[in-house]
């Protein structure tokens, strides 16, 4: 099983919350920090809006910025 991939930007408050939730749950992700003025092509393919955080689950499901907080992330990741 592949490790989920998290695209993040270190100063984005939404991305900070997502990372804190992931750490709090002891959930393993591959973290890819992005420079927003030079977004990676793969990130733009999975999330055309280009916002962070973007979580790509091992089953191919994409979860975008506002979809997860410390309350909803456990449900998303454990389904």
Topology summary:
Elements: E1 5-8, H1 13-24, E2 30-33, H2 41-46, E3 54-56, E4 62-63, H3 73-78
Parallel strand pairs: 1-2
Antiparallel strand pairs: 1-3, 3-4
Provide structural commentary:
- The protein is α+β, with helices and mostly antiparallel strands.
- Helices cover 30% and strands 16% of the residues.
- The chain has 3 helices and 4 strands.
- The chain has helices at 13-24, 41-46, 73-78; strands at residues 5-8, 30-33, 54-56, 62-63.
- Strands 2-1-3-4 form a 4-stranded mixed sheet, covered by helices on one side.
- The model has no long low-confidence stretch (mean pLDDT 84).
List keywords for this structure.
single chain, 79 residues, alpha+beta, four-stranded mixed beta sheet
Rg computed from alpha carbons, rounded to a whole number of angstroms: 11 Å
Counting helices, strands and paired strands, the structural category is alpha+beta
**Mean pLDDT, all residues:** 84
Helices, by number, come to 3
Largest sheet: 4 strands, mixed
Beta content comes to: 15-25%
Termini separation comes to 15 Å
How much helix is in the residues?
25-40%
Strand element count: 4
Provide a compact summary of the structure.
Helix content is 30%, strand content 16%. The chain has three helices and four strands; from the N terminus they run βαβαββα.
């Amino acid at each position: 099983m592949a490790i989920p991939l998290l695209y993040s930007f270190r100063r984005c408050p939404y991305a900070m919350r997502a990372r804190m939730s992931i750490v709090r749950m002891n959930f393993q992700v591959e973290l890819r920090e992005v420079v927003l003025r030079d977004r990676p092509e793969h990130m733009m393919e999975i999330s055309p809006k280009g916002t962070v955080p973007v979580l790509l689950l091992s089953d191919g499901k994409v979860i975008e910025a506002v979809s997860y907080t410390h309350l909803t992330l456990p449900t998303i990741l454990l389904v």
